[in-house]
Specification:
Layout: H1 2-16, H2 19-26, E1 30-35, H3 43-53, E2 63-68, H4 76-85, E3 90-94, H5 96-105, E4 111-114, E5 135-139, H6 145-156, E6 162-168, H7 174-185, E7 189-195, H8 202-211, E8 216-219, H9 223-227, H10 229-238, E9 243-245, E10 256-260, H11 262-277, E11 288-289, E12 293-298, H12 299-305, H13 311-316, E13 319-321
Parallel strand pairs: 1-2, 1-3, 3-4, 4-5, 5-11, 6-7, 6-8, 8-9, 9-10, 12-13
Antiparallel strand pairs: 10-12
Helix pairs in contact: 3-11, 4-5
Length: 322
């Protein structure tokens, strides 16, 4: 009698839930996140919120494995090795240098990138419409962004002539060259400064800017500069140098933050991760372009360095820091 009951229970469980269904029901998706900067930037928090808005709560129905290179690109192989060993279902990465390292690390795991200046020119994908392979993603790059930033600086600082441009020596010169060209087109004199991580000589760069009588500074949206955003803002304030930074680095204390929203791009990256976890193939998802601008003005910094922000600029600002 006991054996008959045992057989009956076993058969019932088999019909109700097959082994494959049981395994699938128990599986929680695991997503790896890797940024070339540090955790202090709002990008990872934006990614986690983007997934939460789609119903994925970290530690409940999804596991997110974050890693940060802190501007040390030679750490990429080890960091990607960790994530691959954890058998992540998707890799979410920021920046072209990170996307190329991810593609080199795996051809099997789907990769979704964000914050890549030009995915084709940066050799991340062969085509925006048909990325192919195992990666796709989002770009928030506007090729005319530097022009808009310089025009804003000219509005805030009448008579500006010389503009320093600070870049990361470890990445492509695309942003630097675009900045120089667009500065000249507006009658400005660009001054190029590129620093190398992981310990960039920022003191030397700012000493050179002072020697060359820079009227303002544009800090490019590049990884090592994100790692040292607070130090850059501190040195700029010390020299009373008006500084234009990216919206994602507004917490560092620069004078004006203006550019396309990296946070918005990260939210779109989370949506692509969601599509892939639901069965979409990266090769079939075209690279998406997101170009929503943000303007943040820091009045505290303006007072500290003796700059008066025109009312028209304050009126257009999405946020004003007092």
């Amino acid at each position: 009698m006991f054996k008959q009951m045992l057989v009956l229970v076993t058969l019932t469980l088999t019909f109700l839930l097959s082994p494959s269904e049981a395994q699938q029901a128990a599986k929680i998706p695991r997503v790896g996140f890797l940024a070339p900067q540090g955790r202090s930037l709002p990008l990872f928090d934006a990614f986690r919120k983007g997934l939460a808005d789609l119903g994925y709560i970290d530690g409940q129905n999804i596991v997110i494995e974050p890693r940060f290179a802190e501007g040390q690109y030679d750490r990429f192989p080890a960091l990607f090795g960790e994530l691959i060993s954890l058998k992540v279902d998707v890799l979410a990465v920021t920046g072209a240098v990170t996307a190329r390292a991810a593609r080199k690390a795996t051809t099997d795991i789907p990769i979704v990138f964000s914050i890549v200046v030009d995915p084709v020119a940066d050799n991340v994908v062969p085509s925006l419409e048909h990325p192919g392979g195992n990666l796709t993603g989002v770009t928030c790059f506007d090729p005319t962004q530097a022009t808009k930033q310089f025009q804003l600086l000219k509005e805030v600082i009448p008579g500006i002539k010389r503009v320093a441009i600070l870049g990361d020596q470890g990445v492509s010169e695309a942003l630097m060259k675009a900045g120089e060209e667009q500065a000249r087109a507006l009658g400005l004199e660009p001054q190029r400064f590129r620093v190398a991580g992981p310990n960039p000589d920022l003191d030397g760069a700012f000493a050179a800017m002072k020697q060359q009588h820079a009227d303002a500074l544009l800090v490019l949206e590049e990884p090592v500069l994100g790692v040292h955003a607070e130090k850059i803002a501190e040195l700029a304030a010390k020299d009373r140098l008006p500084t234009m930074i990216a919206p994602s680095r507004v917490a560092s204390g620069g004078l004006i933050a203006y550019g396309t929203s990296q946070v918005e791009a990260i939210h779109h990256m989370a949506a692509y991760v969601n599509k892939i976890m639901k069965g979409a193939k990266p090769s079939e998802l075209p690279v998406e372009t997101v170009t929503r601008y943000e303007l943040v003005v820091n009045l505290k910094t303006a007072r500290d360095i003796g700059i008066t922000i025109p009312p028209a600029v304050l009126k257009r600002a999405d946020r004003v820091i007092q």
